[in-house]
Write a structure and sequence with these properties.
The chain is elongated and about 80 Å long. 2% of the residues lie in helices and 50% in strands. It is built from 1 helix and 38 strands. The strands form 9 sheets. Strands 1, 3, 5, 6, 8, 37 and 38 form a 7-stranded mixed β-sheet that branches. Strands 9-36-35-34 form a 4-stranded antiparallel β-sheet, with no helix packed on it. Strands 10-11-12-13 form a 4-stranded antiparallel β-sheet, with no helix packed on it. By secondary structure, it is an all-beta fold. It has a domain of 131 residues: Immunoglobulins (Immunoglobulin-like), CATH 2.60.40.
């Protein structure tokens, strides 16, 4: 029919896990089959929010590639949308209702992986496999879809593994051990392909470059060195002294040009991955407390650095100028183990000696969700590639896997809009529409 087009309200109900959270948004109307005319009022109704929750209503004209906002901060469980001339007949649209602020996502514990003393857990880049280093001389791999154990690699008894990280292609894995060595494992065979030795101290922290050609290792005791290892040639490429004391964490930035480090010496740094020159210093240490800086994370846009330490503080810094932006005491003053950004930078996570893991909005510093993962220290925290899974390793208590799902809903029912043949005197004020139109 000429002048008619279809508007699709499309909602994905995202609720995972054995322990689901309350507050799931569900669109109730339109439910399909309705026909409206330009100038009519479309009642958009939803459930799953309280009077203190707010939602936004969004419209897409390109099948969900981009969205424009119809209304923000809605709290009444309904919005009356006047269809204006800007909605062109012959187009296909999407509408969604999205939770905002504290109700913008749902969280649920999906899985608890036990049977070991897991000091570190890491997703592969595809998000399909989780690996964990077990202090009981194993590396365990799980399928993240079924959570079946794929493989348990037996580690030589003289090795006590700490950190593990996948190669970018997922075929290899590097581990750091207390005996002063790092191992590169072939995940198909379960064997050690090559080994990196440190003559002075344990290798607690390791990381692959984004292209998989280089591994950076950090010594966690006295020397403050980082070593770059050529994966193909199986040889040391260079060593740089970055800190005056042991390295607590090291990783490549996503662009591969910068290395992130933090140390017992009270500082965190950004280092040029080619020259070893220090690009920026972040003096995290708080006077009168332990100077140990346990973690450093760089936002996906490269603008913000977050550090954490034994002083109990998480600190946000301008990555370019080194200026302190804000400090937060998230874990009740107890030591903070690690901080980590999700791949897109939407989330920041921190874990601490209080046995809690936090999901944080890095823009505001607001805590969005607290996960109580057990007694004692939570060691590490990671996200999978699409940010729907969140892992927390906490030693003998295992690895807990939590789901993170956008709190938004969409129906997949079509409804149509046709051109009107005559103009009418209409109001465009939604407050007035709400006061004059009754919806059962």
């Amino acid at each position: 029919m000429k002048g008619t087009f279809f508007l699709l309200l499309y909602i994905t109900v995202c609720l995972w896990g054995n322990q689901s959270m309350v507050g799931q948004i569900r669109v109730l109307s339109p439910d399909g089959g309705e026909e409206y005319t330009l100038g009519d009022v479309v009642p958009i109704l939803w459930s799953g929010t309280t009077s203190t929750d707010t939602v936004s209503i969004e419209l897409s004209a390109d099948g969900g590639v981009s969205w424009s906002e119809l209304a923000a901060k809605q709290t009444t469980n309904r919005y009356l949308w006047r269809i204006t001339e800007s909605v062109k007949p012959g187009s296909s649209y999407l509408i969604r209702v999205v939770g905002s602020s504290s109700n913008k996502s749902l969280f649920g514990q999906q899985q608890q992986l036990t049977g070991g003393d897991f000091s570190w857990a890491e997703f592969n880049d595809a998000g399909t496999v989780l690996a964990a280093s077990d202090r009981n001389n194993r590396i365990v791999l799980w399928d993240t879809r079924s959570w079946e154990e794929l493989k348990a690699i037996v580690v030589p008894e003289n090795l006590v593994l700490l950190q593990v990280q996948f190669s970018p292609d997922g075929t290899m894995l590097v581990s750091g051990a207390l005996d002063g060595t790092a191992q590169i494992w072939n995940l198909n065979t379960g064997s050690i392909e090559s080994q990196i030795a440190s003559p002075t101290s344990s290798i607690a922290v390791v990381g692959y470059s984004p292209d998989g050609r280089t591994i950076v290792v950090g010594n966690d005791e006295v020397d403050g060195d980082i070593t770059l290892w050529d994966v193909t040639e199986k040889r040391k490429r260079s060593t740089y002294q970055i800190h005056s004391e042991g390295i607590r964490y090291v990783e490549y930035a996503r662009d591969g040009k910068t290395i992130l480090t933090c140390s017992v010496d009270g500082t965190a740094k950004l280092v040029d991955a080619t020259t070893g020159n220090v690009l920026q210093v972040f003096p995290h240490a708080t006077p009168g407390t332990s100077p140990v800086v346990n973690g450093i994370a760089l936002s996906s846009d490269g603008q913000t650095v977050v550090t954490c330490g034994f002083d109990g503080w998480v600190k946000y810094w301008n990555a370019i100028t080194g200026t302190l932006i804000q400090s937060r005491e998230y874990h009740g003053g107890q030591k903070v183990s690690k901080v980590h950004y999700s791949p897109s930078g939407k989330w920041l996570s921190s874990v601490g000696y209080d046995g809690k893991a936090l999901l944080i909005d890095p823009t505001t510093g607001e805590i969005i969700f607290r996960a109580d993962v057990g007694v004692g220290e939570a060691y590490t925290t990671r996200f999978n590639s699409d940010e729907t899974l969140w892992s927390i390793s906490h030693g003998s208590y295992g690895v807990s896997i939590w789901s993170i799902q956008p709190n938004e809903d969409t129906s997949d029912s079509f409804w149509s809009i046709r051109e009107c043949n005559a103009t009418s005197d209409v109001t465009t004020d939604n407050q007035q529409l709400n006061s004059t139109l009754t919806i059962e």
